[in-house]
Amino acid sequence: MSTVVFQPDARDQGLLQEIIGYLNFSSGASDPAFLRNLNALVCGLESRNGSSGDSVAVLCDWLNRRMDELQKESSTFGDVSQARAVVGLLGGQLLPAYRKFHRDLLWHQSERELWRPLFLGRAIEALLTQGGPWD
Predict the structure, then answer these.
(1) Contact 2, 53 (CB under 8 A)
(2) For each of the chain's 135 residues, which pLDDT tens digit applies?
(3) Assign residue 50 a region: left if phi > 0, alpha if psi is -120 to 50, beta otherwise?
């Protein structure tokens, strides 16, 4: 994961909490509020991070750090194992595997062009639909 040069602001913190709630408690059903929140968070992140940054790595880092905070603050988020697993699978396995599988078609596309917020949302929904065990 890359080093985060900036911190999420109060609005981002709220969006992160809503997204983590979906990640942790959903079985993958499409939720317009989740997709809207993810879109707002990633677009805001990209506008501050610039075109050179790895937005998915920053997003995963922010989600993991916010999960740590929520686990300490709220009993509702006492067990975020599903959310943590989905974030790990998304950034560490699914997206790299997708790029590798489609390398003949996507070789010329940058990470920023490929990993658009709504694509990430659908990828997350697919992971949640598959369900655990998460290892």
Answers:
(1) yes
(2) 444 457 888 999 999 999 999 999 999 999 999 999 999 999 998 888 766 568 899 999 999 999 999 999 988 899 999 999 999 999 999 888 988 888 788 787 777 777 789 999 999 999 999 988 877
(3) left
C-alpha distance across the termini of the chain, in Å: 20
| Distance from C-alpha of 60 to C-alpha of 65, rounded to nearest angstrom | 9
Cis peptide, bond prior to residue 133, ω within 30 of zero: yes
* Whether the Cβ atoms of residue 27 and residue 128 lie closer than 8 Å to each other: yes
On whether the pTM is more than 0.85, the answer is: yes
